[in-house]
Amino acid sequence: MKKEFLDKAIYYAKKAYDIDEVPIGAVIVKDNEIIGYGYNKKEKEKSVLEHAEISAIKMAEKKVDNWRLNGCDIYVSLDPCPMCASAIKQARIKNVYSALNNLDNNNFEIISQIFRKDKVNPEVKFITNLDIESSKKILNSFFKKQRNK
Known about the structure:
This protein is an alpha/beta fold. Helix content is about 45%, strand content about 15%. It has helices spanning about 5-20, 40-45, 50-65, 80-90, 105-115, 130-145; strands at about 25-30, 35-40, 70-75, 95-100, 125. The chain has a 5-stranded mixed β-sheet with strand order 2-1-3-4-5. The termini are far apart. The model has no long low-confidence stretch (mean pLDDT about 95).
């Protein structure tokens, strides 16, 4: 785990914040190089699929010209949802480094189950709460701003 990549995921979360989206960012790293990044754009694109992790995966797939992202890690500003966790696993991403657990125990249990080794895909290693303060700060600011609208 490299702090600089987690900081970059937070940077992309701020990009989402700036366009009035829930501030979640993600970067995909291979051989110490960012090959994909994304941030939440669900409202802007009017699509449930426009999560930070999905955008980062699509960009990384283009960069390596393959849907298999073997040897890659993903850094996220908030634990992935089950949809994104499934995409991460299907893409063969090796490690997930998350700044903050989303406090939903059900979500944690579901994504932990998804990340387990199965008959087709290897285990995805998942570590959370690596930069609680940075992620909490931007999320709290966003939701406070939304309540004041």
